[in-house]
Amino acid sequence: MVGLKEELLKSIWHAFTALDLDRSGKVSNGVNWSLSCPQVLSHNLCTVLNVPHDPVALEEHFRDDDEGPVSNQGYMPYLNKFILEKVQGNFDKVEFNRMCWTLCAKKNLSKSPLLISDEDAFKVWVIFNFLSEDKYPLIIVPEEIEYLLKKLTEAMGAGWQQEQFDHYKIALNTSREGLSAWELIDLIGSGQFSKGMDRQTVSMAINEVFNELILDVLKQGYMLKKGHKRKNWTERWFVLKPNIISYYVSEDLKDKKGDIILDGNCCVEALPDKDGKKCLFLIKCLDKSFEISASDKKKKQEWIQAIQTTVNLLRAGSPPPHKEARQKRKELRQKLLAEQEELERQMKELQTANENKQKELETVRKQLEAAAARAAEEEKKRLQTQVELQDRFSLELEREKLVRQKMEEQVAQKSSELEQYLQRVRELEEMYKQLQEALEDEKQARQDEETVRKLQARLLEEESAKRAELEKWHLQQQQTIQMTEAEKQELENQRLIKEQALQVAMQQLEQLELERKEALEQYEEVKKKLETAANNTKSWKDKVAHHEGLIRLIEPGSKNPHLITNWGPAAFTEAELEQRQKSWKGKKATSE
Predict the structure, then answer these.
(1) Does 179 share its domain with 260?
(2) Are 310 and 268 contained in the same domain?
(3) Which ranges carry the PH domain (predicted)?
(4) Angle at 540 (CA atoms; ends 538, 546), nearest 5 degrees
(5) What is the pLDDT of residue 565?
(6) How far apart are CA 138 and CA 14, in angstroms?
(7) Highest mean pLDDT among 366-375, 394-403, 505-514
(8) Is the pLDDT of residue 70 over 50?
């Protein structure tokens, strides 16, 4: 009953919105219709739906307030409670739809001339309500438009122009999600996809699709039926529906002669030719059996297969094929949409993470450049200090006390500088560890990319499984209903769309891979600069150790006599002092 209620609401929605009610319950001419319009609509609905009308409940529901009939406390709660919940299904769907069509067609139907009649426009409107999405305002998506146009083209016996529809679909997708009922009527009535066909052919095609999708007519045609009493053969027009076969005097369906009620216990079997009748088959039910003669062997086989398929669906409790196919198309669209949204979300997260890593690497690079600049400045200062020390030592050779004092001060100063430089080296090592952590984060990003690739592979496997399942179903149904070919083509087109979406995702992943390689190259450059700074540090240490008098190891004193100063024994002997004086003089002469 939930599906029936949704179908009824779509037609009622068209009729209700055509009343032009605003939230105060007034129409455009200013007259208060808050009760009269819903009363008229409710009375008509109760009449066509065979539901007892309760005008007192309607007036009680719409007591004087400021909200009006289109509020949350307005007409829709009344409609659900007092009308739709009482619907039993014993009503004429065509008459119900025609009543709703009468209320809304005059206002919304295009005034421009169409290639279809008003009756055909009504049938297209009913088909729209069947194929439209279950959300308001009602629209029909491009996939369902393609399905409908293909069935109309097939019914007209023409070839489907896929390229023409693709151009139309591209133009449609750039502006909106789908078409309204009136836009669909204009599209079919304009003859854009039925060029070369006369009005009668288009009308017959619309009627055939209407019978299949709305009236659940699975098959129809003339055949001979053997009477139960007189045993004579009479030509009848047979109409096969999901649970019944009705037969009429002619195809205008005015004079109905009887029904064959189908259930899971029925069966159909071919009979040999007899009594001058050919192409015979028998329909067995619990209470009766019916002998029927088709016009040829092909028609006989088609009817046997169609009836047997209907019985199988009744046994399985499955809906008619076109309703089941519509539900599968909706579920597939919802699943593809959910997968696409999930993929976009993951791609956005990966892109954000990659951008954050790039920013972190850029910050580390700038820090390393600043550290290298500071190291170069310190090296320059150190060299300048060393030159100054050499000049100072040359001038203070005459005074041993000042020399010793100066040397001790310089040693302390150099020790402090060495400690500071070692501190800077430790800072550089810490930065190197941070670079390693950044590299680990980059590896994690690559693992995330691999996860996305595996997800894409899984999606492709699922798509392959879906395609295999659809092909299997197609082979099973190919001999029974030709319309399944169109559904298979539609599913194939949807698979191609999904593959295109996956290709776009793969291109984005390749772009991320290129960006990761660029970040790795930048990391290698930073690493080389760090190694260069480390080599410069080692070279500086060697130079400091090489120069005499800057750092001196503490060793056991010599047994030779030492010089005595005002502060005690000197740090070197007289011979050592003479040797050092000669060395300093030689260096000074070389520098001059």
Answers:
(1) no
(2) yes
(3) 216-312
(4) 105
(5) 58
(6) 9
(7) 366-375
(8) no
Q: Do the Cβ atoms of 312 and 242 come closer than 8 Å?
A: no
Of 3, 218, 210, the C-alpha closest to 89 is: 3
Cα radius of gyration rounded to whole Å, the chain? 46
Instruction: Give tens-digit pLDDT for 191-239.
Output: 888 887 888 999 999 998 988 888 888 899 999 999 888 888 999 999 9
- Could you give the CA distance from residue 124 to residue 342 in angstroms, rounded to a whole number? 36
Q: Give the domain range for residue 308.
A: 219-319
**Does residue 319 have a cis bond before it (omega within 30 degrees)?**
no
Q: How far is CA 540 from CA 130, 379, 587, in A?
A: 86, 8, 21
CA within 13 Å, CB half, 233: 14
User: Is 522 part of a structural domain of the chain?
Assistant: no
Most confident of 71-75, 81-85, 365-369: 365-369
Identify whether the C-beta of residue 151 lies closer than 8 Å to the C-beta of residue 131: no
Burial label for 94, CB within 10 Å (0-12, 13-18, 19+), is: middle
Nearest to 108 by CA among 207, 16, 202, 210: 16
Residue 54 has pLDDT above 80, yes or no: no
Q: How much is the pLDDT for 308?
A: 93
Q: What is the pLDDT of residues 346-395, one digit of tens each?
A: 999 999 888 999 999 999 999 999 999 999 999 999 888 888 887 877 78
Do 244 and 204 lie in a common domain? no
Number of domains in the chain: 4
Please compute the mean of the pLDDT values over residues 501-517 and round it to a whole number. Answer: 81
Confidence of residue 561 (pLDDT cuts 50, 70, 90): low
Q: Cα–Cα distance between 88 and 51 in angstroms, integer?
A: 9
d(CA 322, CA 493): 18
In a 10 Å sphere around its CB, with 0-12 CB exposed, 13-18 middle and 19+ buried, how is residue 322 labelled?
buried
User: Alpha-carbon distance 103 to 11, whole Å?
Assistant: 10
- What gap in Å lies between CA 142 and CA 562, rounded to an integer? 107
Q: How confident is the model at residue 71 (pLDDT cuts 50, 70, 90)?
A: very low
**209 and 244 share a domain?**
no
CB 429 within 8 A of CB 489: no
Tokens of 330: 């909706």
- Three-state helix/strand/coil letters over 109-131: CCCCCCCCCHHHHHHHHHHHHHH
564 assigned to some structural domain: no
Q: 161 and 247 share a domain?
A: no
For residue 245, which amino acid is it?
I
* Judgement on whether residues 107 and 35 belong to the same structural domain of the protein: yes
Report how many helices (DSSP H) and strands (DSSP E) the chain contains, helices first. Answer: 15, 9
SS3 565: strand
What element of type H or E holds 284?
strand 280-284
Average pLDDT, the chain: 81
